[in-house]
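Feature request disguised as a bug: please show the residue count (247) next to Methyltransferase domain-containing protein in the output. Example input:
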Amino acid sequence: MQSLYSNGFEKIYDSMYQTFINYKDEYLFYSTILKKYTKNNVLEIGSGTGNLAKHFIDNNFNYQGLDYSQDMVNLSSLKLPKGHFMHGDMRHFKLEKSVDSTIITGRSTSYLLSNKDVSNTLQAIHINLNNNGILCFDFIDANRFFKIIKGGKHLYHAASFNNKHYSRDSYLNTNTSNNFMFDWHSKYFQIKQNKKILIADDKSEVRAFTKNEWELLLHLNNFKVLKFIDKPAYMFDCYAVVAQKIA
Ligand SMILES: C[S@@+](CC[C@H](N)C(=O)[O-])C[C@H]1O[C@@H](n2cnc3c(N)ncnc32)[C@H](O)[C@@H]1O
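Example output, currently without the count:
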């Protein structure tokens, strides 16, 4: 699962995703929600290479990042020496001090393949959140996305960053063997002198969710849903959910 996030690929991820995702807009999205609930300290789960962290740190949020890939953590710490990045698993983590808000970003919820994974994550977040703390995260909306990829769909993305040119050929198909899973086969290429050089070939099984699933999973794990927000992303139909810890 982590091949796309480690062993050197984290550097390519870092470049490519800065062309796929507008991290300034992501920051505006999350910070507007956190400010509304007067939350100034935040834990980002799935902090990746720190592209979103930079904006939180520059804007004086008390920020911590957590990621499962040690290579992602190392790269974000190198890029942002003022940042506090931890290696950990969202399903089982314990902070030294609880936080006022937690965000799970970049559709990292897609890696919570079982309902047990989801419950473990929500319980860990609950323990590490202050009373009335805010949880906000995005997820791929199975209801819309599965209608697009049903029967299989090819998608192509090009990315140019710092004079390096990359492309990604994806093939996606539904796989409902266990929850609303989908298979994502992606081939990553670097383009040099008009030649496509294969740099990674990844086959992952990831998960989309419906709003109803999250409503129930959050309720069962002592979070109150405040709202769902339609949040389309560069490739996926997504929602974000804002929830509050209840005792
Ligand atoms: C699609 S990337 C998103 C990274 C970043 N949020 C961004 O937008 O660029 C998903 C991230 O989730 C992390 N991840 C996957 N499973 C995780 C887990 N169980 N606990 C913490 N992080 C996890 C991966 O290592 C990866 O950095």
